[in-house]
Specification:
Blueprint: H1 2-21, E1 25-26, E2 28-34, E3 41-47, H2 53-56, E4 57-60, E5 64-71, H3 76-85, H4 90-99, E6 107-113, E7 118-122, E8 131-135, E9 138-142, H5 150-160, H6 165-178, E10 188-194, H7 202-205, E11 206-212, H8 218-243, H9 247-260, H10 265-277, H11 281-294, H12 297-301, H13 315-323
Antiparallel strand pairs: 1-5, 2-3, 2-9, 3-10, 4-5, 5-6, 6-7, 8-9, 10-11
Helix pairs in contact: 3-4, 5-6, 8-9, 9-10, 10-11, 11-13
């Protein structure tokens, strides 16, 4: 009898490992979507699982995005993108991946191609509450939810939201959490947005790529990171404007960055530098004083900027700047 029982348990263990034993248990809610105007594509996710974005979210400019979840078959991500790259549409890719997976009953998968075609699958053994809904060039999917209304709320939120694709994806996640979310709670989240067409430069094709790996309020932190991301986008544009000698544009971009991230000293510092370079030293001095008083390293850095002409001042003007920190 013990031998039979042991054999029975061994069979159960083997089957469990075949289907999901080696796969992350990323029960979650997510959305894949394409902006019908810009063509940008994105995937956003939140889960009570560590570093959920590294296993659930996949995307490539000009190709598509994938969300693979529940008892995650991580290979669906890279393999799905590879098939899309070969020219298969979203439904063909999903059908092929699911057909070849013995653990299909435990999977949840959403695929969106660059043309806006979307395909979604929820296995019959996904942990309740589980389901998905599709809309115009997007899909929302969830499993192990507290309520079976979560994905409906997500769909309605995305359809009625405005703004950039990244903003709409964030709003959809926040609505899901407000509607009950993951029954286990919350731990990590991610937001990925890629360009409509590939430039051949991966670092340019990923417009947003943010991860909250482990946090008591992952969506609050993801929202904060997105705000910081936007601020640094303005900073980058300001830096580029300086390279092109357009100080007025640089000033505009640095001011926008500081408004989004006012607690950041670096943004204040570069606004002061830009003001100085366009002949507004008197307006810059109070800002330099504030920055130097909080971190003297910025004062030490200031004269070094003359070497590469990031700061264009006379020796007298430089001393005026440095003296405000005394």
């Amino acid at each position: 009898m013990k031998t039979i029982l042991s054999l029975f348990l061994l069979i159960i263990t083997f089957n469990a490992q075949t289907f999901y034993g080696e796969n992350p248990l990323a029960h979650t809610y997510s959305i894949v979507a394409r902006d019908t105007v810009t063509g940008e594509m994105g995937v956003a996710v939140q889960s009570h699982w560590f570093s959920v974005g590294t296993i659930v979210s996949w995307g490539e400019a000009g190709v598509g995005v994938v969300a693979t979840q529940s008892f995650v078959n991580v290979s669906f991500g890279p393999n799905g993108l590879a098939l899309l790259r070969e020219g298969f549409n979203a439904q063909d890719v999903l059908d092929k991946l699911i057909e070849e997976d013995e653990g299909r009953d435990y999977r949840q998968l959403a695929i969106l191609d660059a043309k806006g075609n979307v395909a979604t699958y929820s296995g019959k053994k996904c942990t309740p509450e589980a389901g998905h809904l599709q809309g115009n060039q997007f899909s929302v999917q969830a499993n192990m939810m507290k309520y079976d209304t979560v994905w409906r709320v997500m769909k309605e939120t995305f359809e009625n939201s405005k703004g950039s694709l990244a903003e709409r994806l964030l709003l959809t996640l926040e609505a899901a959490e407000e509607a009950g979310g993951d029954i286990r709670g919350k731990q990590s989240a991610s937001l990925l947005v890629v360009k409509a067409e590939s430039t051949g430069k991966v670092w340019e094709d990923r417009l947003v790529d943010l991860h909250v790996e482990d946090h008591p309020e992952p969506l609050v932190e993801l929202r904060r990171l997105y705000r910081v991301h936007q601020a640094y986008e303005h900073m980058n544009k300001g830096d580029l404007a300086i390279e092109h000698g357009d100080m007025e544009l640089a000033m505009k971009e640095y001011s926008a960055a500081e408004e989004l991230f006012p607690e950041n000293l670096e943004m204040k510092f570069w606004r002061a530098v830009t003001l100085t370079n366009i002949g507004e030293l008197e307006s810059a001095l109070p800002i330099f004083k504030e920055v130097f008083s909080k971190d003297n390293n910025w004062k030490i850095l200031t004269p070094k900027l003359l070497v590469n002409e990031l700061l264009n001042v006379s020796e007298t003007e430089l001393q005026r700047i440095l003296s405000v920190g005394d």
